[in-house]
């Protein structure tokens, strides 16, 4: 059963559905996120996780249903509109601009300006970029190279650093460990832990690894075939329980396919 929704919800998704032609990617989704909470979103490939994130981030519109941010129903025009309302996203496919350097990407669309000394703004942005990357613990020796020349893990780190320094209220992390080695992945999980302890932002994190979700999140939702089928505090569930639900659903779908 879904957790009780409350006044301290920073975000609510209500009865959201999304179709792509014959494919129903999301079916009557209800999800809520409390202030300061880290919610893990688990689900198999094609379950609908990214579609749901894209709708919450203003990248796509739902066919039905509504999004409520801090008590107000909203209809996002685009990603920038969602961002202006405090929702920021790190996508699986990142959204960095390849030709721009690390500092320019960190401050994309929110550049500091200082007239009459533009160099000063550049110096401050550079300093803040350095600090943000240090906070994650990732060393990128040169900040003035186009990000196209960096590794997948470094690019991922920049995208995460940009989001956590953006003063967003809600951060969406779509598989933040996807391009990471073990060490960098641990750094990102540490960062999520720091943010969770500080309690200033709310996070939805898509992940494939149940252990990571149980360690790093307050609550877990499971999405299967475009529907939320499970919603529990991580303290009240286990890898075994999650595995059992996923395997049971797989068996049910296989029986249905064989029967029909
Ligand atoms: N732009 C699109 N056009 C057509 N179908 C789409 C589109 N985006 C998603 N889908 C379909 O919607 C369903 C859900 O996709 P989605 O990417 O949300 O799943 P996911 O849970 O994020 O999967 P993964 O873990 O593989 O990234 C899939 O069947 C997918 O093929």
Automatic annotation (TrEMBL):
Q: Which GO terms describe its molecular function?
A: ATP binding; ATP hydrolysis activity
Entry keyword annotation includes ATP-binding: yes
Q: Where is the ABC transporter domain?
A: 11-250
Q: Which Pfam families match?
A: ABC_tran
Q: Does the keyword Nucleotide-binding apply?
A: yes
Gene3D superfamilies assigned to the protein according to its UniProt record, in alphabetical order: P-loop containing nucleotide triphosphate hydrolases (3.40.50.300)
List the InterPro entries hit by this protein, alphabetically.
AAA+_ATPase (IPR003593), ABC_carbohydrate_import_ATPase (IPR050107), ABC_transporter-like_ATP-bd (IPR003439), ABC_transporter-like_CS (IPR017871), P-loop_NTPase (IPR027417)
Instruction: Tell me where on the tree of life, at the top rank, the source sits.
Output: Bacteria
Keywords of the record = ATP-binding, Nucleotide-binding
Name this protein carries in UniProt: Sugar ABC transporter ATP-binding protein
Native source organism of the sequence? Nocardioides mangrovicus
């Amino acid at each position: 059963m879904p957790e009780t929704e409350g006044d301290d919800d920073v975000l609510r998704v209500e009865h959201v559905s999304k179709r792509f032609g014959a494919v129903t990617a999301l079916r009557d989704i209800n999800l809520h996120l409390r202030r300061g909470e880290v919610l893990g979103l688990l689900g198999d490939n094609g379950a609908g996780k990214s579609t749901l994130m894209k709708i919450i981030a203003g990248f796509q519109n739902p066919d039905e249903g509504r999004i409520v941010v801090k008590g107000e129903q909203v209809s996002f025009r685009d990603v920038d509109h969602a961002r202006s309302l405090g929702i920021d996203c790190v996508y699986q496919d990142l959204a960095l601009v390849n030709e721009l350097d690390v500092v320019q990407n960190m401050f994309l669309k929110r550049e500091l300006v200082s007239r009459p000394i533009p160099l000063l703004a550049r110096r401050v942005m550079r300093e803040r970029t350095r600090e943000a990357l240090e906070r994650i613990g990732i060393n990128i020796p040169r900040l003035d190279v186009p990000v196209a020349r960096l590794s997948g893990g470094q690019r991922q780190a920049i995208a995460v650093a940009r989001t956590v320094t953006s003063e967003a209220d809600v951060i969406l992390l779509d598989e933040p460990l996807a391009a990471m080695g073990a060490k960098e992945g641990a750094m990102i999980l540490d960062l999520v832990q720091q943010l969770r302890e500080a309690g200033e932002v709310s996070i939805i994190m898509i992940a494939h690894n149940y252990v990571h979700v149980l360690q790093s999140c307050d609550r877990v939702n499971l999405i299967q075939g475009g529907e939320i089928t499970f919603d529990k505090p991580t303290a009240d569930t286990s890898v075994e329980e999650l595995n059992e639900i996923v395997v049971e659903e797989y068996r049910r779908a296989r029986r249905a396919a064989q029967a029909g």
